[in-house]
Specification:
The chain is α/β, with parallel strands linked by helices. The protein is built from nine helices and eight strands. Helix 1 packs across helix 8. The protein has a domain of 122 residues: 3-Layer(aba) Sandwich (Rossmann fold). A four-stranded parallel β-sheet has the order 2-1-3-4, sandwiched between helices. Strands 6-5-7-8 form a four-stranded parallel β-sheet, with helices on both faces.
Length: 332
């Protein structure tokens, strides 16, 4: 083991105990693939240990260079702004410490093969009585106020759609942007396909994945003539773990290139022009460590940030009829 180099796996965090358990399983898998490094993990918000706790542990064991990898599929605000802010602040406070930041998993052949395996398993469980040409694939992403990240979900859907040869493909999102899951599924149900496969392109479970499945059940109940199949999300598929290990090694080989061509913080993207050049600062200091374990505050809601003192730029399409405002109607 190289005692001077350590690896920090930076997760988002969740109040969902199952999500935390799954993240820890991924961190364990990364450790197994990188036995020559000291590996720690931590969360941006809503769970402990927080990222700085993991950094402290590595430094206490003599690590002087840390290779930090975001435990996220795509680079939106958390991977582009919030985690770098935490890492940069920590590094500035510790003379002689070097932290290098890996790129996100992104669109990767390993991830696509893992996604394909999850969909194939769902199809096998459902049976082969419906032809793939009569099947529609619905890929559901997390959803962000970053069009670059949102467009990656659509690209993943297209690659999976063509790869399987399904009759049609659609993309939906669990929040922030549009179309959301319920209206997207209602739209898909009108297209005349006999089967709809719903695949959450997520690493871990949590409120959002469970909500995706709940919406699927609700729409399925309204359309008994269509067979709805719920595929599992990625979790700790071996190919996912391989991709994480690859991101860490890329830092040392000089191949660590984050795609910033369409980053809304650096390039004028249609509808998001006002966000170019915004300072990189984490919006999550107020919720670090909140959410799991003893003494956490149940009154915060991660999906409603408007009551916190920080300010996100307004999302240009917040009033889209198929987007976030439909969630407000659901909550009553």
């Amino acid at each position: 083991m190289d005692e001077t180099i350590g690896v920090m796996v930076c997760g988002h965090g969740s109040r969902d105990v199952d999500a935390i358990r799954e993240f820890e399983a991924v961190a364990k898998g990364i450790r197994a693939r990188l036995p020559h490094y000291d590996v720690e993990s931590g969360f941006l918000e809503f769970a402990r240990p927080v990222i700085r706790d993991g950094l402290d542990k590595l430094r206490a064991r003599g690590v002087r260079r840390i290779l930090a990898v975001p435990g996220m599929l795509f680079a939106a605000g958390h991977a582009k702004n919030d985690i770098p802010s935490v890492l940069n602040t920590y590094q500035a406070q510790i003379p002689g410490l070097r932290i290098d930041y890996a790129r996100e998993l992104g669109i990767d052949d390993k991830l696509l093969r893992a996604a394909g395996a999850r969909i194939a398993a769902a199809l096998e469980g459902a049976g082969d009585h419906i032809d793939r040409h009569e099947t529609l694939l619905m890929v559901v992403g997390r959803g962000a106020s970053d069009p670059d990240a949102n467009s990656n979900v659509a690209k993943v859907m297209r690659l999976l759609w063509e790869g399987f040869g399904f009759g049609w493909g659609e993309t939906a999102y669990s929040g922030v942007t549009f179309p959301l899951v319920a209206p997207a599924l209602e739209h898909a149900a009108r297209l005349g396909y006999r089967r709809i496969v719903v695949f959450p392109y997520f690493l871990f479970t949590g409120v959002l994945v469970k909500r995706i499945y709940d919406h699927t059940d609700a729409v399925a109940a309204r359309h008994p003539e269509i067979e709805f199949v719920k595929a599992s999300y990625l979790r700790d598929h071996p190919l996912v773990l391989d991709a994480f290990a690859e991101r860490v090694e890329e830092i040392l080989t000089g191949a660590n290139v984050m795609n910033c061509k369409l980053c809304k913080y650096r390039t004028r993207i249609l509808g998001f022009e006002a966000e170019v050049g915004q300072p990189q600062e984490s919006h999550h200091h107020h919720v670090e460590g909140i959410g799991t374990g003893d003494g956490h505050d149940h009154h915060h809601d991660h999906h409603h940030h408007d009551h916190h003192p920080h300010h996100h730029p307004p999302y240009p399409h917040a009033d889209h009829p198929l987007g976030p405002r439909t969630l407000k109607r659901e909550r009553g």
